[in-house]
Amino acid sequence: AQRVTQPEKLLSVFKGAPVELKCNYSYSGSPELFWYVQYSRQRLQLLLRHISRESIKGFTADLNKGETSFHLKKPFAQEEDSAMYYCALSVPRAGANNLFFGTGTRLTVIP
Amino acid sequence: DTGVSQNPRHKITKRGQNVTFRCDPISEHNRLYWYRQTLGQGPEFLTYFQNEAQLEKSRLLSDRFSAERPKGSFSTLEIQRTEQGDSAMYLCASSLLAAGGEQYFGPGTRLTVT
Q: Once rounded to an integer, what is the mean pLDDT over residues A57-75?
């Protein structure tokens, strides 16, 4: 069965410091990995996905199949990055792509 | 069309009552998903529709839960004989048919069972 683990429930960093939000997954096949973000009083939204290999709002995430990880990184945190971040996994089968989420990490960027 | 909408936003009900939630997806999206989120947890998949067909249901979806999408547009999620353990945020998301289509989430319906 698939599982997503986010070991840190809370993470605080100072503005301008590097950020790394950890995500590990378990799945024997080839999943798709995503990071979703929820800013205060806003709905859950996609931040980035591993297949697009792009940087969004300065964030990047590399899929490491050997370590089964998909950590989210940003070199210089900004106050507006404070939010709840969820790592999610999708197992495409028969075209379906329902998501399996981790428990989330609340990031606080201290001014 | 400003995105996925859900109604009501909040629902308080007494144990044993039935409740129904509605989700209106983005108009051209043929896939619709329901998730449930409890405090301190990430969203958990409940069920998904492709057009009007319900193609997958999680084991989390007990017999008291039923979902419909009669015309392939809006969807309803009904919970019969609510229990306190049903208290949660119920999220709806929609996406296009393409594999890996981004899921767009609604604001959720917060259910409190007293």
A: 93
